[in-house]
From TrEMBL:
The protein, known as: Uncharacterized protein
Basic and acidic residues compositional bias, start-end: 114-126
Region (Disordered): 100-126
UniProt organism field: Solimonas fluminis
């Protein structure tokens, strides 16, 4: 699924917002990547959203004992709360009902010397 940069940023803001209060809980980049992998969204879009959100001050990136941690700043929390989807739905509601359908991407193993390819499987994400 291809989202606009703004939709991808809103999605990342919402996923982080749902997982902890500002500053009190830094979230591991590895955990964010795992959650993102459960969606049908592209990993490259995650990296783009992280860069864009940190550049505008909505996301803080820190290192803690070799683990990269992400946390929303106060402006990031405000943006997550204010994000609206088409039809004036809250972004979180739109995210769970529309953008995260019961399909998820998985990497199909490569044949010897191959690079693999993306495949889809149906069913609910974990």
């Amino acid at each position: 699924m291809k989202l606009t940069p703004e939709e991808t940023q809103n999605t990342l803001l919402q996923l982080l917002f749902e997982r902890g209060p500002v500053g009190a809980r830094n979230i591991s980049l590895n955990l964010v990547a795992e959650v993102w992998a459960e969606t049908t969204l592209r990993r490259g879009d995650l990296l783009d959203a992280i860069v864009r959100l940190s550049a505008i001050g909505h996301l803080s990136i820190a290192d803690h004992d070799g683990d990269t941690r992400l946390s929303l700043t106060v402006p990031g929390v405000i943006a997550a709360r204010a994000a609206r989807a088409p039809g004036d739905l809250a972004w979180g509601e739109h995210l769970h009902k529309t953008l995260l359908p019961g399909q998820r991407q998985r990497q199909v193993p490569a044949s010897e010397g191959g690079r693999g390819r993306r495949g889809y499987e149906t069913g609910r994400a974990r």
